Amino acid sequence: MNARTNILALAALLLIPTFGYAKDPVVKPDPEGWSSEVNLLPEVKQIVKVSNQDHNWVRCPEKIGEVVYSAEDGVKVTVSGQNAYIKFQWTTNPETGEQVRPNDRTDIFVECGGEVYKILALPVGIESRTLILVPGKGKLMQQKISQATTDPETRVLEILRMVWRNELDEGWQVAKKNESLDLEPGLELNLIKEVRIEGEGMRVKEFLVENGGKARRIQEKEFLAPALSKSPLAIVFAAQEEKGDQNFLAEDGKGRLILVEHINEDFGLPLIREPKGN
Questions:
Q1: Structural domain includes residue 51
Q2: What does the alpha-carbon distance between residue 17 and residue 15 come to, in Å, rounded to a whole number?
Q3: What is the DSSP string of 43-70?
Q4: For the residues 27-34, what does the mean pLDDT come to?
Q5: By the 8 A CB rule, do 172 and 194 touch?
Q6: In this structure, are strands 37-40 and 106-112 parallel, antiparallel, or unpaired?
Q7: Structure pTM?
């Protein structure tokens, strides 16, 4: 069996078929519009608005080392492995006896992966935030060198899985889309996201698939169309309401399609080869 011509089958086996699976629960952004998650780099100082009423979660890809902050600023940081939790302490107004939320900025220094992150935390009245400590340029370069030695087909499947699970690397360029495409009668596709993998010559497209006709079984090879990609490397599909068969799409059902392609559309690898005579 040729591994290159069977990327599709391997991808379907290796991916978790649950529609919309993500590593963390979805948290709605606060009313003023900033995201509940923010990425922080070690090279820059950044003022970050955090919750002054809930715990704020700090995530490091490795075990967190030393954390330096001033307890006099009314902040407490608890460290547990790769995670740290920032909580601002309320004070009592001596005249009125009312509880007062802190609103003064405090500096927190976190050692993560051999680098120091300078968090300029500004407590405000919002929901809990997640501060993701992403690798600096040096770490990213080491990762790219390591990835370059990986078998290309293995790397394609790894990228496919990461996008499916919404575990995107820092440095990938993500663009939200809203482009409809009628690939065939009764089957509507909507491009909702593109992820560009810089330095590796690949791009990932995510589609929402909607069935406007009768229930049917979807085959990934149906999406090998130039309208979707001229240079596909791997494709996987899963229905939103999976009932023992991730490729079965119910009447008026929805599904998720992930496609990995070469950015250079003049070059591509054959994903499926039909036997002659079919």
A1: yes
A2: 6
A3: TS-EEEEEESSS-EEEE-SS-EEEEE--
A4: 38
A5: no
A6: unpaired
A7: 0.46
